[in-house]
Amino acid sequence: MKGNLYNTKSYDVIKDMDTEKRQVAVYLSKFDNMDSDSDIIRRGAFSKSLIERGVNSTSNRKIAFLRHHDWQQPIGKWMTLQEDDFGLFGVAQMGNSTIANDAWEDYKMGIIREHSIGFQYIQDKIKFIEDTTLPSGGYYDITEVKLFEGSAVTFGANESTPVVEVKSAEDKRAKLIEVSKSIENVIKSLTTGEYSDDRGYVLEMRLKWLQNQFMILSTAEPFDKSEHSTKGEPSKAFDWGHVVNQFTNK
């Protein structure tokens, strides 16, 4: 069963760029296409989110345009978000912040070529279809998701796991502590109640993203050179279960 975490999926079509208006037209998702998670997203899967939080909605929690799914890196806003026969199509207006300007330069240089959605699965909108011809034994038919944002990413295959690139056990522990502290800081900000609705939404979404990063990192296996060395005594295994329990039981 799919977990109710902050999930991501990538797609790599840039349809057009308008250098005078600083706008980019992209596809964020393709319909009826099986991805690496054995998911097939159907047309209509985004329709409820587009009504509730899309460009023409009255919501103050509109679907965001980010860099690398990071809610601290908004780079513009969606001018158009709509489903067509191909997939989820969007036209984005770049902002004027330093982060947005850097992203725009990356677009022009061809460094940004891929885009990705940040979303949650909806359990009763997922159906596993058995198919013995597939290595996975079947696929998940997705008829609805909760869409939070669309992101410009450098490498779509890796953008959802930036914190799992760890070189050693101690490096992993340090990153777990870093992410845990970030989670605590966001929670503290949320509990004060001293923020606008827009800021509250950004904090809420960043918390979901951080929690997902923590879960990915907690199950990642670091490559520790000392454990693979032919010299000296083998290193003692680190009890990651104890570390994870300490953080998750706070």
Verbal overview:
By secondary structure, the protein is of the alpha+beta class. The chain has two domains: 7-153, no CATH class; 162-248, no CATH class. Helices cover 32% and strands 30% of the residues. It is built from six helices and eleven strands. The protein has helices spanning 47-53, 98-109, 169-192, 197-219, 225-228, 240-248; strands spanning 7-11, 13-18, 23-30, 39-41, 64-67, 70-83, 87-94, 114-121, 126-130, 138-142, 145-153. Strand 9 (126-130) and strand 10 (138-142) form a beta hairpin. Helix 3 (169-192) runs antiparallel to helix 4 (197-219) and helix 3 runs parallel beside helix 6.
Based on the model shown, name its key terms:
2 domains, eight-stranded mixed beta sheet, three-stranded mixed beta sheet, 6 helices, 30% strand
Summarize the structure.
Helices cover 32% and strands 30% of the residues. It is built from six helices and eleven strands.
Q: Helix and strand layout, with pairings?
A:
Elements lengths: L6 E5 L1 E6 L4 E8 L8 E3 L5 H7 L10 E4 L2 E14 L3 E8 L3 H12 L4 E8 L4 E5 L7 E5 L2 E9 L15 H24 L4 H23 L5 H4 L11 H9 L2
Parallel strand pairs: 4-10, 5-11
Antiparallel strand pairs: 1-8, 2-3, 3-7, 5-6, 6-7, 8-11, 9-10
Helix pairs in contact: 3-4, 3-6
Order of H and E elements: EEEEHEEEHEEEEHHHH
Compute the number of strand runs.
11
Structural class by sheet pairing and helices: alpha+beta
Low-confidence stretches: 157-164, 223-238
Spatial sequence of strands, sheet with the most strands: 1-8-11-5-6-7-3-2
Mean pLDDT: 81
